[in-house]
TrEMBL record:
<protein>
    <recommendedName>
        <fullName>CopC domain-containing protein</fullName>
    </recommendedName>
</protein>
<dbReference type="GO" id="GO:0046688">
    <property type="term" value="P:response to copper ion"/>
</dbReference>
<keyword id="KW-0812">Transmembrane</keyword>
<dbReference type="GO" id="GO:0042597">
    <property type="term" value="C:periplasmic space"/>
</dbReference>
<keyword id="KW-0732">Signal</keyword>
<dbReference type="InterPro" id="IPR007348">
    <property type="entry name" value="CopC_dom"/>
</dbReference>
<keyword id="KW-0472">Membrane</keyword>
<keyword id="KW-0186">Copper</keyword>
<keyword id="KW-1133">Transmembrane helix</keyword>
<dbReference type="GO" id="GO:0005886">
    <property type="term" value="C:plasma membrane"/>
</dbReference>
<dbReference type="InterPro" id="IPR014756">
    <property type="entry name" value="Ig_E-set"/>
</dbReference>
<dbReference type="GO" id="GO:0006825">
    <property type="term" value="P:copper ion transport"/>
</dbReference>
<dbReference type="InterPro" id="IPR014755">
    <property type="entry name" value="Cu-Rt/internalin_Ig-like"/>
</dbReference>
<feature type="transmembrane region" description="Helical">
    <location>
        <begin position="158"/>
        <end position="176"/>
    </location>
</feature>
<dbReference type="InterPro" id="IPR032694">
    <property type="entry name" value="CopC/D"/>
</dbReference>
<feature type="domain" description="CopC">
    <location>
        <begin position="25"/>
        <end position="120"/>
    </location>
</feature>
<feature type="signal peptide">
    <location>
        <begin position="1"/>
        <end position="26"/>
    </location>
</feature>
């Protein structure tokens, strides 16, 4: 009897040791310039702060597009811990709504991305398009194949089923053993 109880305890420990918590992707927590901000002067740098450690993706991590469709020069892009920073050139600056698009690589290797707008008001310039207060944040996108992404169906976790099955098996073994004696 004691041997079966020890086996049950070891099986339960093994089952719970193998249970891995779901990993969430990093999310954009704050930015400078902020989403929807109205700036009196063009920003000299961009700072994106995430909820978890990130790294730079393959390709452009940060792009800024002006109201006329021209892209700003973005240089010196760095990722450190949870923050991406970049310097931006003022040569392509025009008054109006600008779109900042970003990409980052999560700790698990998946690429996340998003975009938002901010408005620049430059003295002496008129906007080629009227600035609006609309802010659009895109949904976090992952490039992981669907088969490797965890299901979030809200069902019972697999490790819990394993524990229940082990308990039932040990119970049946103990019952059979008791009836033979």
């Amino acid at each position: 009897m004691r041997r079966y109880l020890n086996a049950l305890v070891l099986a339960l420990l093994a089952a719970t040791a193998l249970a891995v918590p779901a990993q969430a992707h990093a999310e954009l927590k704050s930015s400078n310039p902020a989403s929807g901000a109205a700036l009196d002067a063009p920003p000299k740098f961009i700072e994106l702060v995430f909820s978890d450690t990130i790294s730079l993706p393959d390709g452009d991590a940060v792009t800024v597009t002006g109201p006329d469709g021209a892209k700003w020069p973005v240089t010196q892009v760095h990722a450190l811990d949870k923050t991406i920073t970049a310097s931006v050139g003022e040569a392509a600056m025009h008054a109006g709504e600008h779109k900042l698009a970003w990409q980052a690589r999560s700790d698990d290797g998946d690429t996340i991305s998003g975009a938002f707008t901010f408005t620049v008001k430059l003295a002496g310039q008129t906007s080629s398009s009227s600035p609006t207060s609309t802010v659009t944040m895109s949904k976090i996108v992952t490039n992981a194949p669907p088969s490797t992404t965890p299901s979030e169906s809200g069902g019972v976790p697999a490790w819990l089923w394993i524990v229940v099955i082990l308990i039932v098996l040990v119970g049946v073994l103990l019952l059979v053993r008791r009836r033979k004696a």
